[in-house]
Amino acid sequence: MTGKVVLHYFNGRGKMESIRWLLTVAEVEFDEVYLSTREQYENLLSDGALMFQQVPMVEIDGMKLVQTRAILNYIAEKYNLHGKDLKDRIMINMYSEGLMDQMEMIMMLPFSSDAKSKLDTIQTKAIERYLPVFEKALSGPMYLVGGKLSCADVQLLECTLMLEEKFPAILSEFPNIKAFQGRMTKIPAISRFLQPGSKRKPQPDETYVKTIMEVFKIKLP
Ligand code: GSN
To answer: Which regions of the chain does DSSP assign to beta strands (E)?
Structure first.
């Protein structure tokens, strides 16, 4: 590997958090540069570091990678967390996309004007659409695909922990997912990541939202 992995993003979860999770499970050390001012963002732009003028951006193996899913796939491939063949991979990607859809809904809440109704929609969709899929997939197998840990498992853990922060009892009807969480959180790298003081980020607060609005010059109507 050429140098250390460096993450460029805000000091908060957002789209980078799944990348932090995956690097952690792959036991890859990383540094973070937190984007906190418009000037920093403009410097990244003028350096040509952001292909689509967006973050997350990850410096890895001498490259500056953007696009969250592309970055996740690179890490998953490199660290053998993307299944053994094409058929495993498509299943992993399908699970992963469903999980990203759910996490994106939660991610957008602090920027939303009708958070309460959005929260209700998230809960209903989680219970009726998404969680049953994972409950079924885990009735027997230890992991979602191919009997082996993959990036989809890591995202399922991340997503279900996020859901429980909003709806503490949401997994009460999903015992297989709850048992899966129990197994996953025993993996030493994950157990460390869940301890205070790790690189895991807390739920978004006002400062995080304000920073993003300032850096991107976003004005709410
Ligand atoms: O998944 C991805 O990485 C891209 N498809 C989207 C990345 C993205 O939207 N990045 C935002 C900040 S993170 N929050 O949503 C971003 O850089 N927005 C600035 C802009 O001008 O689009």
So the answer is: 5-9, 30-34, 57-60, 63-66
Cα 169–106–120 angle (5° rounding)?
Answer: 60
Q: Which residues contact 141 (CB under 8 A, 6 or more apart)?
A: 147
Can you name the residues that pair with 5 across neighbouring β-strands? 30
User: What's the chain's Rg over C-alpha atoms?
Assistant: 18
Q: What integer is the mean pLDDT of 121-138?
A: 98
CA distance linking residue 143 with residue 180, whole number of Å: 8
Is 112 near ligand 1, meaning CB less than 6 Å away? no
Q: What is the pLDDT of residue 3?
A: 83
Which residue's C-alpha comes closest to atom 6 of ligand 1? Answer: 67
Q: Which CATH architecture has domain 5-79+194-215?
A: 3-Layer(aba) Sandwich (3.40)
Nearest by Cα to 72 from 95, 49, 106? 95
Q: What is the distance in angstroms between the CA of the first residue and the CA of the last residue of the chain?
A: 46
User: What is the DSSP code (8-state) at residue 85?
Assistant: S
CATH topology of domain 86-184: Glutathione S-transferase Yfyf (Class Pi); Chain A, domain 2 (1.20.1050)
Averaged pLDDT, 50-60: 98
Please give the number of the atom of ligand 1 that sits closest to the Cα of 66.
3
Q: What is the mean pLDDT of residues 86-108?
A: 98
- pLDDT bracket for residue 219 (50, 70, 90): confident
* Residue that has been written with the tokens 């969480």 in this structure: 181
How many CB atoms neighbour CB 42 within 10 A?
11
Q: Which residue has the tokens 């094409």?
A: 86
